[in-house]
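subagent[fold] <- orchestrator: predict structure for attached chain, return tokens only, no commentary.
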Amino acid sequence: MRIIIIGAVAAGTSAAAKARRNSEDSEIIIYEKDTFISYSGCGMPYYIGEEIENADTLTPRDPAFFKSKYNVDIYTLHEVLSIHPDEKEITIRNLLTDEVFTDYYDQLVLSTGARAVIPPIKGTDFKHVFALRNINDMNRIKDYIDSYHPQSAVIVGTGFIGLEVCENLKNIGMSTTLIERLSQVTPGLDSDMAVYVEEHLRHKDISVMTDISVKEISENHVILSDDTKLTADMVLLSTGVRPNIELAKAAGIELGVTGAIKVNSKMETNLKNIYACGDCIEQFHVVTGKPVYRPLGSTANKTGRIAGDNITGGNLEFRGVLGTGIFKIFDKTVAQTGLSEREAHELGYDVVVCHNIKPNKPDYMGGKEMVIKGIADKVTGRLLGAQIIGYEGVDKRIDVFVTAITFKANVEDLFHLDLAYAPPFSTTKDPVMYTGMILDNAIHNGRALMTAQGLDELIESGEKYTLIDARVVKQYDKNHIETAKSIPHSKLRIELSEIDQEEVVVTYCNKGVTGNAAQNILIGRGLKKVYNLSGGQMQYSKIHTKNKK
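subagent[fold] -> orchestrator:
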């Protein structure tokens, strides 16, 4: 059997390796139009920022490695021009010699990846304007920095790559400005979590501009949509990626609703003997079952392995994605998985959310706070998504949430997880367990939560309400929500007569725990419409600090 794979980065080489493990007799050939193969794209920002000293560590495998270990022939600088499914042939150009020739296959795998989206902005062709998608891009950026020593950079877009490059440019001494056309950074996060990222960026002396776009790039400036001019010795376009589907489309391979190649769970396309994997394909979401496009290196490796297994008689099947992502921004970690609150609302879920602010381990062991946002379905109690911003231990918690959502856990299940505990690693009840407890209380035990946005809507609605600050008077005097009444938790039972039992009552404290205790008292005394402010004063103040900027 002759297997041809188009593309030799994460998915293509993973497919080849798995196919070889299954079949020693098959011929396996990979055509790659680039010069580098099987590289670690996620490490590129850290080479630009000199945290990684040797670029070779990002490209540890070359064609000779795959030939010696897997007996796979990889031809770099060979561009596949067309696919002829009826003849089971492809046409290839050798980019070194310009020779055009044909090859035949029994099984064909497309792992053509994705390319950076270059927005239609005048000036993107200047030599100081870059995108970062592959090793050649990385080398061009590094060579430019080493040759011209730019002092200022503008990064357009605030996704993972944009923020990682931002950190690394700042670390090598460049003043950096982030431009985002949306009203928040990190578009994948909900806005009430993105505020923490933006605050941290500003704390690190990064200039952040949201709700604005780039109109033009000149030799020394970036001109914004409001005609503001920013000095820019270097510009990075981090405005997303688009699947490379032109080859597939021309061959009659069906595309999905997201615009990427449509495949089934075995990575089969609509054409017999043609498979696809990696960043060029559409996936489906574990929670909803609906098509999504979430190009990530981890998914590319997984789908490549599945394709390689099935072309050699295996039966591996893809089980979907949750859109899990994690990145570092200076000394903070940002992670998410599953549906955001925004997505859950758009899909018609009756959503309950909580903001759980807890340390990753006890204070006496140097614990630092993490903010966990949990998103759940009020009707079924199923956990739908989670977002975390913190320091050490964020990766551990997000992976627990990933596992729970994948296996369709309900919020009450989180409390019953037998998680590892010792003071250097966790609190006795882990923040994951607390998140489950808060959501369980909200959904099943009548301890309703109100978000900062919900409180603002209540205040503006004209409906009568009582807002109780349950903290001590000293904390109230330092800062409080404008319409709040100070009734410390310790005095709430005494001053109960001051509360109109027919009104909506909202309690709050610094982060939510004492607010919940006050809520319990009021519910225990017969009040029917009592809410606790999710995340307390801390969460509410973050939202309003952002809105005042």
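orchestrator: received. Logging for downstream: The first strand starts at residue 2 and ends at 6. The chain has four domains: 2-113+242-310, 129-239, 331-444, 448-548.
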